[in-house]
Amino acid sequence: MTTMSRSIVVRRPVRQVARVLGDPSVVMAVIGDHGRAARVEAAGDGAEQWEVFLVLGTMYMGGRVRIDEAGDGALAWHAVSGFQHDARFEAAAHGDDATITVHFQFRIDGLLTGRLAARLVRGYIGRYAESVLESLRHHIEYGETGRQ
């Protein structure tokens, strides 16, 4: 598994940031502004499933994800089909402000080519994560953003 983490400081109290991160519809709407995200269904145990596709250059990468945790300042999911990955957004106090951190793990098969591809994809996903974090920060600090 390849791991990537990015963080951003949000100039709002951690309580407010945690409330936003705990709402999958808000976070997925921001992700959808940078790719495509649509709620598919609720699983039998109440967990939500979403189709999430990231635009990486000229290609879409993604698939169906199952939200494992939503609330208490965190949102986490794992892939159930498509690109195999796990993601976790979490809020933490940073003085009077808050920090949002996203942790992303993914797997690309193959010995040599898999490692080379993972390095390339890690860079793409890192830039994508920074863009999503900036959009989340802007949404929390200034209100509604993105496509309406």
From TrEMBL:
Domain of life: Bacteria
Protein name per the record: Polyketide cyclase / dehydrase and lipid transport
Stored SUPFAM superfamilies: Bet v1-like (SSF55961)
Organism: Tomitella fengzijianii
